[in-house]
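Throughout our pipeline, every protein is held as a single compact record rather than as scattered files. The remainder of this section carries one protein's record, kept here as part of the documentation.

===
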Amino acid sequence: MDMDRLREIVRLLKDEDLTEITIAEGDTELTVRRAPERGALPTTIAPTAAAVPGVPSGTVAVTAPLVGTFYRRATPESPPLAEIGQIVHSGDTVCIIEAMKVMNEIKAEVSGRVRSVLAEDGAAVEYGQVLFVLDPL
């Protein structure tokens, strides 16, 4: 990986306020981590429903941890990774967000039944945008 590419990755970390990013290109995989600023409080990637306006009480929101393009399927021919009514377990991949030509698997933080899907397949999503609402198990 050349230095210009590495600088671009570090710039992405800063611009998107991320603490970690993993890039896979061919046989090479690179993880870049940024230490939190002194005095900074840790951030939560998947806030609970109480912290997300418009999400029903007692449910859990799965939010976008980065800006990118939202995909419900691993490939165009595959079934959706998570559908309404489906039970997902903590650690299950529920969608993919593409950022800078890197496919990032987004995993459920808790086990639950998918109540709603709030992002359109192929649509741009913003950091913190609610993608799914789960009824916790």
Remarks:
- DSSP finds one helix and ten strands in the chain.
- The chain has two domains: 3-33, 49-136.
- The longest strand covers residues 93-99.
- The beta strands are 20-25, 28-33, 60-63, 68-71, 87-88, 93-99, 102-107, 112-117, 124-125, 130-136.
